[in-house]
Amino acid sequence: MSAPTSAPSPLPLTSFSTWAPLLRAWVEGREAGADQVLHLAGAVGRDRVRASGGVAPHARDSAASLEAVERVRAALTAAAAESVTFSARISPSGRTRLRLRGPGVSLEGTSDHGALVLVEDAVPEPWRRLPEVYPQAGCSAGDPAAVERWLLERLPGAADARDEEFSAAEARLGRPLPAELEALYRVVGTRQEDWDTAMYEAVPWELFPLEKVHVADASSRSARWPVAALRAVVTAPGAAVQELVGSPGWIAFGDDGCGDLLALDLTPGPGGRAGQIVALPLDEPSGAHLVADSLLDLLRGTAPRGAEPQGGSAAGDRLRDRVVALLDAWNRRGVEDVAGPELEVLCVRLPDGPPADLAPLAGLPRLRTLSALPGTLADPRQIGALTGLEYLELGPAEWRTLLDAGAVPRGLAAARIITQGLDLPGPPVGLSNEILALWGRPPLVRAVVDGDLGPLPRPGSRHVTRPDA
Question: Which of 356, 444, 432, 367 is nearest to 399 (CA)?
Answer without folding.
Answer: 432
